[in-house]
Design goal:
The chain is α/β, with parallel strands linked by helices and 357 residues long. It contains nine helices and 16 strands. Helices cover 26% and strands 23% of the residues. The strands form three sheets. It has an eight-stranded mixed sheet with strand order 6-5-2-1-13-14-15-16. The radius of gyration is 19 Å and the shape is globular. Bound molecules: fe (ii) ion (FE2) (2 copies).
Length: 357
């Protein structure tokens, strides 16, 4: 435990120092095992939405978000074992955007694992992305933890292959958050079969951490905060004593617990999305979240941007968020065996959801 405590103090010291000068959406993940396994950390950057204007011009704000995240990640102490990029590197999936994003990410020291986002995918169905970053789904083991990366943003073949006259139009239709012409995300049969085989080789006592772009839970279909076959993926994860899903795409802090599976989102380097609950006029499938959450101001431009580190004690995930105006927010796996916001757990502390019409 001494090692763990020392390590946590280091993180807190580091996070405090970084918080003074930074609002960066970088997750630093620490995996700490009491008694078994080996402590380690990794960082998480997501949703940079690098957007090409013309020639050598790109949207500066999104560039700056990623550049700063890369710089801060390289400064982390202790040095993370690896970095994950959580998808939506590009805005419209072009070579120019993916190349520019890859160039910025190449500044990271150490191994980077990549997750496919819908903004990276729907122009050429991941062809160029694969050339730059490798396979769209895979798994790896690191110091006693089994990590799985899924492409969760596929959809029905009819929509992908038959509905749109051009690849550009297909990309534009999927790029809109609330576009009714979009189509629900899914992992799909091929990856579900692969995942079943992959997990069959893993002991049920091994902590499993899944990285996806969309949430592997059904939150809000209207904005594709949703994965159509989430229930089937959850069924595959259910037998594991400690399963965690970390996802991007929603550009906001979310957490939930379904059975033995913890769900936590990471923030975007580009911009925050508002909360689906604030859009009362749209059809909603939720709140179905089993854990009440604080809802901050969706129209505050820095809301849901900041940086965080995540500690996984005994294989469970604790997220430590440092928000621009909201220091010290911690969502930890508590004794009731679910994520809890340590500051906003009480009803009276929460900021109520706002309705926008
Ligand atoms: Fe995104
Ligand atoms: Fe996305």
């Amino acid at each position: 435990m001494n090692t763990i405590n020392r390590s946590r103090r280091n993180f807190i010291k580091t996070s405090g120092a970084l918080a003074l000068g930074s609002t960066l959406p970088v997750s630093l993940v620490e995996l700490a095992f009491a008694g078994t396994g080996e402590n380690f950390t990794f960082a998480y950057i997501s949703d940079s939405h690098i957007q090409h204007i013309k020639g050598a011009q790109f949207v500066r704000n999104w560039d700056r978000g990623l550049i700063r995240a890369v710089a801060e990640t390289n400064l982390l102490t202790p040095k993370p074992d690896f970095v994950v990029f959580g998808g939506d590197l590009a805005q419209l999936g072009t070579k120019a955007e993916l190349d520019h994003g890859a160039e910025m990410l190449s500044g990271l020291s150490g191994k980077v694992y990549h997750v496919m986002g819908e903004h990276d995918y729907y122009l050429d169905l991941g062809e160029y992305w694969e050339k730059l970053f490798g396979p769209q789904f895979y798994s790896f083991d690191h110091k006693g933890v089994h990590f799985v990366v899924l492409n969760s943003i596929k959809t029905y073949d009819d929509w992908t292959f038959k509905r749109w006259p051009t690849a550009e139009q297909r990309m534009h239709e999927m790029a809109g958050l609330d576009n009714p012409n979009g189509s629900p995300f899914m992992v799909g049969e091929e990856q579900r079969k692969w995942l079943k085989n992959d997990l069959a080789k893993v002991a049920k006592s091994t902590p499993v951490v899944v990285f996806s772009h969309s949430p592997l839970q059904k939150i809000y279909k209207g904005w594709n905060f949703w994965t159509e076959d989430a229930d089937e993926i959850q069924a595959l994860l259910k037998p594991f004593k400690q399963a965690s899903v970390i996802y991007g795409h929603v550009h906001q802090i979310q957490y939930n617990q379904i059975g033995s599976i913890s769900f936590n989102s990471v923030m975007a380097t580009a911009w925050p999305w508002p909360y689906p609950q604030s859009y009362a006029q749209a059809e909603q499938y939720l709140p179905k979240l089993t854990v009440p959450m604080n809802r901050a101001d969706p129209f505050f431009e820095r809301d849901a941007t900041g940086w965080q580190f995540i500690n996984v004690a005994t294989g469970r995930v604790d997220l430590n968020y440092t928000l621009y105006n909201n220091n010290g927010r911690v969502v930890r796996f508590n004794t009731n065996k679910r994520p809890e916001d340590s500051v906003y757990a009480g009803e009276s502390q929460r900021i109520p959801p706002q309705n926008h019409y």
